[in-house]
Amino acid sequence: MKSLNSVKNVTLSIANKVFLKNKYVFKASYAATIAKNFQSEVESVDFEKKEEAAKIINTWVENKTNNRIKDLVNADMFDELTRLVLVNAIYFKGKWSHPFPVAQTQTEKFYINDDEIMDVQMMHLTKNLFYKEDETLDAKVLELPYSNKELSMIIILPNKRNGIHELEKKLATVDLSTITENMYKPEVKVSLPKFKIETDVMDLTQPLKDAGLEQIFTDEADFSGMLDNPERLAVSQVVQKAFIEVGEEGTEAAAASGVMISARCMPPPPEDFLADHPFIAALQAKGQNLGNVLFYGKITRPK
Questions:
Q1: pTM
Q2: Which domains can be identified in the chain, with CATH numbers?
Q3: Taking the alpha carbons of 93, 153, 295, 102 in that order, is the dihedral positive or negative?
Q4: d(Cα 12, Cα 99) in Å, to the nearest integer?
Q5: Is 241 helix (H, G, I), strand (E, B) or coil?
Q6: What is the Cα–Cα distance from 213 to 221, expressed in whole angstroms?
Q7: What mean pLDDT is predicted for residues 62-84?
């Protein structure tokens, strides 16, 4: 976590916070451990004062995300049984290593599906970039580096205009941190729409239960190592919200080898990467202790 928050030449803030009902107290040793290992803060909140509790949490999130993420929680989420709320906030702002020339951005068609088309602001860039055609995914994979080479955006574009759903199914069984393996660096003619991702509030409670963490949400949860209080305690909610905006200069959001060409030969034509239909975008941190996918989203209606 510390290595992510200290990435140079970009703004990258990853913050976690535990909001605990005010009658409960974390053991000092446990509070110190989560602060050291997860950079996580702890704050006591009176969840029975619903409006005040929501304001406290939302203000913290806004401060940590440069005011890009607002209204993460609302008062209706809390009741007299609310004991513990875990919140994660990520903010990223970075400039491309190779910015898209603004003068080349123009209005073009984007094919949402076989029947629906919309106009988008399409950016254009021709550059030597890490790229591959992945037969298993039936997709093209492109890496767009930021000025700090430890961070990059990975674009996964299905070969078929209506192939996004099949691509998602395949990606569900793939380790995304390995998606950039076996790439090479040809000249690539990139056409990529400007886009923004702003998710609605996501309640991660059910996905965590499905992942085998069901017990922490029940009275069977054992938090005795965390609390000074002997009473039973269960996690009430885990919520998350994300914001990503991609433009010519770079990305704002609340990872080979080159090709040797003989001087006597004509260079091969550039690879064509035309993102005029739904695709996957992932923000990847790499390098020592940075093997993380920070954001992951499906772009179906760029705006």
A1: 0.70
A2: 2-94+202-240 (3.30.497.10), 96-196+248-299 (2.30.39.10)
A3: positive
A4: 19
A5: coil
A6: 10
A7: 80
